[in-house]
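For this section, I looked closely at the sequence of one protein beside the tokens encoding its backbone, which the following lines show:
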Amino acid sequence: MSIPRIALISPNRNAYSETFIAAHIARLQGVELVLTDGHLPKRTAIGEPLLSEALWQRVHRKLTGTTYAQALSARITKLLRSQRIDVVLAEYGPTGEAVWPICDRLDLPLVVHFHGIDAFHVKLLAENKSYARTLSKAAAIVVVSHEMEEQLLELGAPRHRLHYVRYGVDLDRFQPHRPDQAPPHFLSVGRFVDKKAPALTLLAFHKAWEQDRSLRLTMAGNGPLWESTRQLVTALGLEGVVELPGAVSHDRVSELMATSRAFVQHSVVTADNDHEGTPLSVLEAMASGMPVVATRHAGIPDVVEHGVSGSLCGEREVDVMAGHLLTLARDPALALRMGQAGRLRAERDHRQQDRIDQLQDILGAAARQ
């Protein structure tokens, strides 16, 4: 059976946190075209513009009477034809909504991969009319958590075209280690944004630290809340106790996971209904043999079993999370048992190539329809 020729469209260029999309590009067979920079993409994978917007505004718009978006759509249409594309993979719901008219004109099957914010955020749902067109017309819809699955069913997605595909993790890069032999240092990795609530992670740690001054915390990542988090570190008297190294490489993340007692993340639903999907850093921690301390949020309970591979609490229950941190700080043997359970779960359910193969099958079936 021939491998379909795939066009992958992703809105964000060089987003360091989107390793799952990088894995799609690198590991899916048959990816012949990658377009990026906007839900209606403006550039190729190497950054070349599909159409000069400045030139269009100065010259072509006056000559043709078409808008830049119309001209860009025509350019994308031409590329999909010239590359003989069989199926389009749109990363994120708004991307699917933007490119669906092009796919419809070309009679190309469209597979839309939702990741988190796109399924819940109030503004995105309003701007995209709750994806009524995409959900009814797409050949397949991919979700990464059971919560997201239920959300899209509520929005009208046909169940028979909805596919639950867990994120996968590179088990060779993230090898199991011995958290029981690490000092009581905790690790958080992720963007400093509202739904990851870095301040709540910090407050929970501070409560635990007040009872055990040997505890340490590293919060790796960057984002709009980094500076306010730094200021809170100072206000709480945690300078020299909490490290904020900014965004770090994937290799450095692996090194940090190898020398930490447990992973911690206090994800929450925001006022504008933003949710996580399934945080990839949680899976990387499990693959590294680390217990996970987190909230019962979005896809986290899908992958972390409370009392087995980690400890979960309700959103904004910082006292409960602090207790979980203290327990793991004082019981290295428990950290080892939980870490080993997490690694086994990652090997069973979250091997990256298995998840890529699952997505490959969905794309192949869509192309054959």
Observations:
- The radius of gyration is 22 Å.
